[in-house]
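Support case: user asked for a sample of complex input and structure output to validate their parser. Sending the pair below.
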Amino acid sequence: MPKPSISIRRRRFLQGAAAVGMSFSLPKRSAAASGKVNFYNWDTYIGETTLEDFTKATGIEVQYDLFADNDELFAKLRNGNPGYDLIVPSNDYVERMISADMLVPLDHSKIPNMKNLDPAFLDPAHDPGRKYTVPYMWGTIGIGYRKSKVKSTPDSWAALYQSDEYANHIALLGEAQTVMQMALKLMGKSLNDWTDENIAAAEAMIIAQKKNITAFAPDNGQDLLLAGEVDLAQEWNGDIQQAMDEDDDISYSVPKEGTLIWEDALAIPKGGPNPDGAHELINYLLDAEVGAKIADFIYYATPNAAARKLLGPEYNENPVIFPSQETLEKSEISIYPGQEIISKIDAAWTRIKAAG
Amino acid sequence: MESYRKNIRVFLAFFGPTAGWLVLFFFVPLAIIWIYSFGENSSLTTIKTTWTLDNYKRLFEPEIIGLFWRSVWLSVVSTAICIVMAYPIAMVIATASRKAKPWLLLVIILPFWTNLLIRTYALLNILGTRGRLNDLLHWFWNMGHGALELVGLGSLLGEQFEPIVFLGTPGGVMIGLVYVYLPFAVLPIYSSLERLDRNYLEASLDLGASQWHTFRKILLPLSISGINTAAIITFIPLLGSFLIPNLLGRGQVDMIANVIERQFKSANDWPFGSALSLFLLYITFIILAIQSFAAMRKRNQENG
C-alpha cells in the first residue's frame, strides 16, 4: 500500500517516471485487438524497466495508469470497469471486490510462476486458495521518527496515541480505519475486533490525544517528517524507507504491541478487454529475476521466495522491510468488516474530526 | 432583444449546444445525486432507491451539525475579513488614475493565472512551522532579542523563539481561505464604487460633513449592493471549500466538503454523501432567496 507522493524530491519517483514513460490517459476499449494490457497500479511501484522488458519479451504493450489509494481504485470500478485488465488492490479491498463479484477467477495453469511464491502466502484469509489474486508486495505500518529528536526508540503506539512527550510533533495517518486499528492494537485488542465498545474506546483515545497531534496526514507523513514539521509519523514502511534514503536522521520502528500487515495483490477485474494478456503479465511479474529487480528498486517486501534468493542481505535483512519474527507474530492482516461496521467507523471518525 | 423569436433557428444554433451541455453535465448528474440521496446501500456497489429519509435525518446528528457549524463560522468570519480588506483595495483602484487602473486590476487577477493547488502548496511552504513566515518571525525575534539584551531585558521575549503554528489550526485555514477568495470580494465592490457619482461625495464634504460621516452616510449606502454581491460570491464557495481545509487544516480542521468526500471514498456511503451535498446546495438557495427577497423589499420601499 505505497502512498503516492507529489514530492519532487523522490529520486526513485523521478527515475521511475522517466523510465516507464507513464501515460495518464484512460485505457481504450480496443486494447485487446492490438495486444495491449491496461495495468492500473500504485505510483512508484514497479521496476525501472519492467514494463519495457515485458513488451520486448512478449510483444504485448502495456498501458500504465496510476491510482492514489484503494478508495479511488474501488470508486472507479464500482460502476463498471472502464477498461482495466490488471489492478493492484490491497487485501481488504480484495475482499470487498470478491464479495462484490468484481474479479475474474485466475487460471492457475496460465501462471506457472506461482511456484516461486513463498508457501506462507498461498492460502490467506482474504483470498482462500488464491482463487482471485496473487500477492505482489507486503509490508507494515510503523513509526517513522527523527533520531536526533527522540530520547529512545519510540517502540510503542502509546508514543503517538497517549503520551504528550512529543506533543505537536506527531502525525497520524489520515485513514479512519487504519488509525483506529492501531489504537485497538495499543489497547491489546485484535485490530479486526470491531465491537461498539472498542470503537468507542478508540474514538475517545484519539479525541483525547487530538490536541497533541499535528496532522492527520493523508499520504505525506514522511514529507512532514523530512521537513521537520513532525518528529514522529505513523506511516507505511515503504514511505519511511524512501525518507531514510534522503535523510540519515530518520529511522523506522514497528511498535511492540504489533501492527497491521498489508498485502497488495495482483487481480484481474471483470469486464477488462484482455484477461489473457493480464495473466501473461502476472506470470511475468512473478518471475524470479523480474521480481528481484522490482523488489530491489521499490524496496518493499516481496512474497516471491525465488526472487529473494537472488537478492543480498542489504535487502533481505533490512529491518524496515522485514520486521522481526516476534513482531510479525503479534501483527495481523486487516479483514474487511462489512459496510455496517465501515459506517460506524466513519461516524466515529466524523466525531473525531468535529471534536476540539 | 425580441429578435430571437423571429430567428428561432439561429437562436437554437447558438443556444442549443449550451443548453445540451448544461442538461447533460449538470442537471442529469444533479438529478442522479438527488435520487441517490433517497437511497440505501443494497450491496457494496449498488444503491437501491427506497425513498427513505434516513440520509436526511442523519444530517442532524450532533457531529454533522458540529462540522456544519464550523464550516459556517469559518466562512462567515472569512467573508467578513475579505470584505473589510477588499473595500480599501477597491477604493484605491476606483480612484486610481486611468493609466494605473488596469495594472492594479491585473495585480488582483494575477493569482488566478496560477493553479489553486499550486498556490495552496506555496501557502503550505510559507505557513509551516519551519516555513518562510516563521523564518521571518524568527529573524525579527533575533533582532528584538539582541536589542533587548543590550539594555538588560533579554528575558522579555522568552529564552527561545517559539514558532507560531498556523497549519492545522482554524486560523491557518482562514488565512488560506481569505487569500483565495479576496479577489472575489474586490471586484464587485470595485465595480460599484466605479459607477458611483463622485459629486455626492464632494457635495457632502463641501457641506461640512466629516470624512467619516461622508463614508458612513454616503459612500457605504451607495456601495452596499457591491458589498452584498461580494459577500454572496465569497460566502457560497467558502462554505463548500475542500482543498484549503484539506491541505492547510491537516485533518484537524475539516469542513463539510471533507466529510462529503469521505462518503464517496472510504466510507463508501454515496446516499449519505449525496444528501450532504444537496443540503449544501439548499443552504445556498436559501441564502440567495433571502438576498433577492431583501433586494425586492428595498426596491419596493424606494418606489414608495
